[in-house]
Design a protein that fits this description.
Layout (H helix, E strand, L loop, with lengths): L2 H11 L25 H7 L14 E12 L6 H4 L14 H10 L6 E2 L10 H8 E5 L1 H8 L9 E5 L7 E11 L4 E14 L15 E3 L2 E3 L4 H6 L1 E2 L9 E2 H6 L6 E5 L8 H4 L4 H22 L3
Antiparallel strand pairs: 1-5, 1-11, 2-8, 3-4, 5-6, 6-7, 6-8, 9-10
Length: 300
């Protein structure tokens, strides 16, 4: 008997059912049974994100907080952007923005803040002015001036959708753990960035000037939600990864636009103006400084 083959088959059979893109799809008798798992399968999966290890403040030998821009026009960042049209696609595939909005609406995601310093909380009712624009047409104003009630067809409503998201901004901390003897990264917050809903389609303003941070999510409290939301794996659709795994593994390309500094955490473009190349070089300089820190720890 080929024992190597037996061992490989045994290991593969022990993999959790959660690695399958659509659970039970090969055993379903009806379409409604796709995605449903038995209680034994759910218990076996132990489907939860891997907990962060405890890090004592005394073990942090050095740290630096950085803010990065994730440009969704870059191909490597597409998994955070698509799908933008959910009409003809299954409920198990959603963009990161749709995952955030759905869970903010149903109350599962509550740690929503105004900025990246997480000092002022927000609820979905507070975000409506940022996410929706309600405008009245000229005919609607004519009805209003005539003392009549405005007809619904004369009221235009514009919502921010996943297709409008152009960037994500993330805040994280690089730190050297002297107990582990290595440089590590911990993601602290993430924010979707889109054009101001009041200026979408307004050609009088430059597109980059109209971008606003819609809200900031405190990342550690959103990990279970992002773990349950899966990302399409282009190489193997039978083994999707979660948004939590993608972000924690830094499977994206980010450009540093700010670091903690003595000047009140000023952004790079505030001291290097009107020169995109030099701003990018400054971002790379900060990255190299962080990378070199781990090597310098071992230099005698």
């Amino acid at each position: 008997m080929n024992w190597k083959r037996v061992i490989i088959i045994g290991v593969l059979s022990a993999l959790p059912a959660a690695t399958v893109a659509q659970a039970n799809i090969l055993n379903a008798k009806k379409p409604e049974e796709i995605g449903k798992r038995t209680a034994a399968q759910i218990e076996l999966d132990n489907d939860k994100p891997l907990d962060y290890g405890y890090v004592d403040d005394r073990d942090i030998l050095w740290s630096k907080t950085v803010w990065e821009i994730i440009d969704l026009d870059e191909r490597v960042n597409f998994p955070l952007y698509y799908p933008t049209d959910t009409i003809d696609i299954g409920a198990d595939r959603r963009s990161l923005y749709d995952v955030f909005i759905k869970n903010i609406k149903n109350g599962k995601l509550t740690d929503i803040y105004v900025d990246s310093y997480f000092t002022e909380k927000r609820k979905f009712e507070d975000l409506k002015a940022t996410l929706r624009k309600v405008d009245t047409t000229d005919l609607g104003y004519e009805q209003l001036n005539a003392g009549e009630q405005i007809s619904p067809e004369y009221i235009n409503t514009r919502d921010i959708t996943a297709a409008d998201i152009e960037q994500y901004r993330v805040k994280g901390i690089w730190y050297f753990d002297k107990r582990q003897g290595e440089l590590k990264y911990r993601l602290l917050g993430i924010a979707p960035v889109a054009p101001d809903v009041n200026f979408i389609g307004d050609e009088s303003m430059a597109p980059e000037d109209a971008l606003v941070e819609l809200f900031w999510v405190w990342y550690p409290s959103s990990r279970q939600i992002l773990h349950e939301a899966k990302v399409f794996n282009q190489r193997n659709s039978a083994q999707p990864i979660s948004f939590d795994m993608l972000l924690n593994a830094r499977r994206f390309n980010g450009v540093i636009y700010k670091e903690d500094n003595v000047h009140g955490d000023r952004e790079i473009d505030s001291y290097i103006t009107d020169n995109a190349l030099f701003q990018l070089l400054e971002s790379e300089r900060i990255k190299e400084q962080i990378r070199d820190r781990e090597q310098d720890m071992w230099a005698y």
